[in-house]
Amino acid sequence: MRTLDDLGDLEGRRVLVRVDFNVPLKDGVIGDDARIRAALPTLHELQGRGARLLLAAHLGRPKDREPEFSLAPVARRLGELLDTSVPLAPDLDHVPDGDVVMLENVRYEPGETKDDPALAQRYAALADAYVDDAFGAAHRAHASNHAVAHLLPSAAGLLLAREVRTLQGILEAPQRPLVAIVGGAKVTDKIGVLEAFLDTADVILIGGAMCFPFFKAQGHAVGSSLCEEEGVEPARRVLEAGGDKVRLPVDLVCGEAFSADTPVTAVDGVDVPDGLMGLDVGPRTAQAYAEVVAGAGTVFWNGPMGAFELEPFAPGTRAVAEAVAQAQGTTVVGGGDSAAALRQFGLEAEVTHLSTGGGASLELIEGKTLPGVEVLS
Ligand SMILES: Nc1ncnc2c1ncn2[C@@H]1O[C@H](COP(=O)(O)OP(=O)(O)OP(=O)(O)O)[C@@H](O)[C@H]1O
Ligand SMILES: O=C(O)[C@H](O)COP(=O)(O)O
């Protein structure tokens, strides 16, 4: 991958920097600015080399130019972090001059998600060089992170390079044992990742609602648990192929509804009684998983162990998060909900690498080629 050093002298030159500032936003308030902060090293490095920055980013999935998808709150936050004002260009024909300028949501342009070469030409006309630091969007081939990279001297930013290096390191040369912790809601979203880990990991710990298709495949009762029907066959295949490598919970914490006020029932075993739903892994599971994590050379964690947003069902995810935080081995966490869980427990600084990518990190682990990365090679 080409790096910032390959761009040569940047003094006075305008660099188009694609970033992933797709942050949670509600009523104009940013819920978590981690993705903005993660781009700062690249921005500081480019500024230090005398470059003028033109930032490009997407926000959400606008259909038209709906104002709630404006990057204005993001530009304001970036201005605070860089201690400068960051004007927002309303469109590509009205880009103000300045040391740090931001384009409006690139998805306001109809050609963006079509990887339109004509739109890419318009982006390229605005700059002398291109840097892609948008790791979280690297699994997309869009005009601002793919087509444009062919048209300017281009390179990977520091964040994108570190993400790729770290995640590929897990695939290619992990310290063993490699322990994969996979949780979250849907097994079908993560089947590719589980299949990849069947080849590469030494142990796969499964948690979250995605354990129920596994239990169903084994003939257990799942009660009213969130259980994806289309996930049952894939889960059966993973169990058959994985043998002892695949570990499932041995106890559960259940409720009557997905609510913090529901009566809580501990179940020692994995048959969920009628009328109850499994909402967390139980203490024996949490302890067993924590012991495996403690002995790991490398840990990759994606997806919570339960409905961690609800206090009564947070302990399983908290125990795993604490074990990951304390582990001596290399620890890599990918995915928005696992990152949110780490933050909820105040442990985000305790892992080796907290990926800014959800889909992008999973696709990389699956061994897929990411268009936004390939184009920089
Ligand atoms: N047993 C359960 N029952 C119901 N919901 C659950 C259960 N376990 C986890 N969840 C929910 O699953 C959601 C997370 O699932 P998801 O698959 O989106 O995780 P993720 O991989 O971290 O997501 P992303 O890829 O967006 O980062 C959480 O909101 C959590 O409440
Ligand atoms: O949040 C993400 O995963 C990335 O910013 C990509 O967003 P997208 O799924 O809307 O393309």
Distance between the termini: 4 Å
Secondary-structure arrangement, i.e. CATH architecture of the largest domain? 3-Layer(aba) Sandwich
Which shape, going by the Cα principal axes?
elongated
User: How many structural domains in the coordinates?
Assistant: 2
Q: Average pLDDT, to the nearest integer?
A: 97
Output the number of helix runs: 13
CATH fold name of the largest domain: Rossmann fold
CATH class of the largest domain, anyone? Alpha Beta
Instruction: Determine Rg (CA atoms, Å).
Output: 22 Å
The major pleated sheet works out as: 6 strands, parallel
Strand content: 15-25%
Structural class: alpha/beta
| Structure summary, number of beta strands | 17
CATH-assigned homologous superfamily of the largest domain: Phosphoglycerate kinase, N-terminal domain
Summarize the amount of helix as a percent range: 25-40%
Bound molecules: adenosine-5'-triphosphate, 3-phosphoglyceric acid
The largest beta-sheet arranges its strands as: 5-6-4-1-7-8
Residue stretches low in confidence (pLDDT < 50, at least 5 long) are none
List SSEs in N-to-C order. EEEHHEHEEHEEHEHEHHEEEEHEHEHEHH
Written description of the protein model:
Its main location: cytoplasm. Pathway: Carbohydrate degradation; glycolysis; pyruvate from D-glyceraldehyde 3-phosphate: step 2/5. The protein has helices spanning 34-38, 40-48, 72-82, 117-124, 158-172, 187-200, 211-217, 232-242, 283-294, 315-326, 336-344, 359-365, 371-374, and strands at 14-18, 25-26, 29-30, 52-56, 88-89, 100-103, 129-132, 154-156, 178-182, 203-206, 246-247, 252-255, 265-267, 277-281, 298-302, 330-333, 353-354. With 377 residues, the protein is α/β, with parallel strands linked by helices. The chain has 2 domains: 4-160, Phosphoglycerate kinase, N-terminal domain (Rossmann fold), CATH 3.40.50; 174-365, Phosphoglycerate kinase, N-terminal domain (Rossmann fold), CATH 3.40.50.1260. The strands form 4 sheets. It has a 6-stranded parallel β-sheet with strand order 5-6-4-1-7-8. Strands 11-10-9-15-16-17 form a 6-stranded parallel β-sheet, sandwiched between helices. Bound molecules: adenosine-5'-triphosphate (ATP) and 3-phosphoglyceric acid (3PG). 3-phosphoglyceric acid is lined by residues 20, 22, 61, 136-137, 140, 358-359.
